[in-house]
């Protein structure tokens, strides 16, 4: 057998191996999402259609709470009981993505600074239906594979913002007007803000022939995955848990009681837009929070602001991805979420 034949055989074997890796990743993702997201949300949709509710507010009765370590602990327990399965799945997929998906395959789809790569990242987020914290490990994994800023941001933000299950819940529990606001601003955040973030980055687009041999594919699969998983757990979990505790303790300050005259004011919209951007919640938890607040007299303006800013990002999720994106991109995203939250609040005040 000639050297050329041997080389071609090795390349064919390598290609088949890569295909099996990708198929394995897709199967793990599909089974995990079916168990953690798709099947439970199917039943929750039926519940929302019949009862016009998906549960009580995770914030609890704020009128009886005072900032304390017990308050922090109680919220952290309630929060992690709701998200732990999705969080584990997010870390698992984020680590497997780095060792199962060939870098040059990802870069051809998601490595460009064009709107096309951003759009593919956003569309790929739709089946995930993750909250911002559970999607963060996958965004980190994408950035470690040199995926463009816009594509990684679109995938991260798209998970909570254009989650089809959440849109269904909003329609049944709140109203179709709220659903329309969420969809429009979700699309702007996912595709528009993510694409504009690419303009802030001067890094050149990757040259594909320089990454055909993926250095991350060297060594055994178990050793590579073990390093990827350990790095992700050690980096993500401590900051994640600590920030959830701090926000749980301070939720009384973030969501204060408002007088009747202030409940639908511009100041309330701004305050709740900022609070929503900082606070951390499970997937779709913004719906019972808004439902409860409005039953207590909160105006439609601040409610519409929360509808955008609560799910989009949070302080814990931003901390988790902070080393994966340039600082100016992070600050641009924070400002964009708050500004769009305020705009949605003003629109909500006028039409709801």
What's the layout of helices and strands?
Elements: H1 3-51, H2 69-100, H3 103-110, H4 115-125, H5 132-144, H6 149-161, H7 164-173, H8 176-199, H9 221-249, H10 251-254, H11 266-278, H12 286-295, H13 300-312, H14 315-321, H15 327-351
Explain what the structure shows.
The protein is globular. 74% of the residues lie in helices and 0% in strands. The protein has 352 residues and is an all-alpha fold. It contains 15 helices and no strands. 44% of the residues are buried. It has helices spanning 3-51, 69-100, 103-110, 115-125, 132-144, 149-161, 164-173, 176-199, 221-249, 251-254, 266-278, 286-295, 300-312, 315-321, 327-351.
What's the total number of strands?
0
Helix content: over 70%
Q: In DSSP terms, counting alpha (H) and pi (I) runs of 4 or more, how many helices? A: 15
Elements, N to C (H/E): HHHHHHHHHHHHHHH
- Estimate what percentage of residues fall within beta strands: under 5%
Q: Major sheet, described briefly?
A: none
State the separation between the terminal residues, measured CA to CA.
75 Å
Give me the secondary-structure category.
mainly alpha
Task: Round the Cα radius of gyration to an integer and report it.
Answer: 21 Å
Give average pLDDT, whole number. 89
- When the domains are counted, the total is 1
Which blocks of ≥5 consecutive residues have pLDDT under 50? 207-216
Shape: globular
Features:
15 helices; 352 residues; mainly alpha
Brief description of this entry?
The chain is mainly α and 352 residues long. The protein contains 15 helices and no strands.
């Amino acid at each position: 057998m000639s050297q050329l034949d041997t080389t071609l055989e090795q390349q064919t074997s390598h290609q088949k191996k890569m295909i099996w890796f990708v198929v394995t990743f897709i199967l793990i993702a599909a089974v995990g999402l079916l168990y953690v997201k798709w099947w439970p949300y199917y039943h929750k949709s039926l519940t929302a259609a019949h009862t016009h509710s998906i549960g009580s507010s995770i914030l609890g009765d704020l009128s009886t709470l005072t900032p304390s370590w017990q308050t922090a602990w109680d919220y952290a327990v309630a929060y992690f009981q709701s998200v732990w399965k999705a969080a584990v799945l997010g870390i698992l997929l984020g680590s497997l993505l780095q060792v199962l998906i060939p870098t040059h395959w990802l870069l051809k789809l998601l490595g460009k600074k064009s709107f096309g790569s951003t759009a593919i990242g956003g569309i790929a987020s739709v089946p995930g239906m993750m909250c911002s914290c559970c999607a963060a490990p996958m965004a980190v994994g994408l950035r470690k594979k040199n995926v463009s800023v816009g594509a990684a941001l679109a995938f991260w933000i798209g998970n909570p913002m254009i989650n089809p299950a959440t849109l269904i819940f909003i329609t049944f529990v709140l109203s179709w007007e709220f659903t329309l606001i969420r969809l429009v601003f979700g699309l702007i955040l996912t595709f528009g803000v993510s694409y504009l973030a690419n303009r802030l980055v001067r890094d050149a687009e990757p040259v594909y022939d320089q990454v055909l041999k993926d250095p991350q594919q060297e060594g055994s699969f178990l050793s590579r995955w073990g390093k990827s998983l350990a790095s992700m757990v050690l980096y993500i979990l401590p900051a994640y848990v600590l920030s959830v505790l701090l926000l749980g303790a301070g939720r009384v300050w973030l969501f204060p009681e408002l007088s009747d005259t202030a409940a639908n004011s511009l100041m309330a919209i701004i305050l709740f837009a900022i609070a929503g951007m900082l606070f951390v919640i499970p997937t779709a938890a913004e719906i019972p929070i808004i439902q409860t607040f409005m039953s207590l007299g909160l105006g439609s303006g601040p409610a519409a602001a929360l509808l955008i800013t609560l799910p989009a990002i949070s302080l814990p999720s931003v901390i988790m991805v902070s080393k994966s994106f340039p600082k100016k991109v992070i600050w641009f995203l924070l400002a964009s979420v708050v500004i769009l939250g305020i705009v949605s609040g003003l629109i909500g005040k006028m039409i709801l």
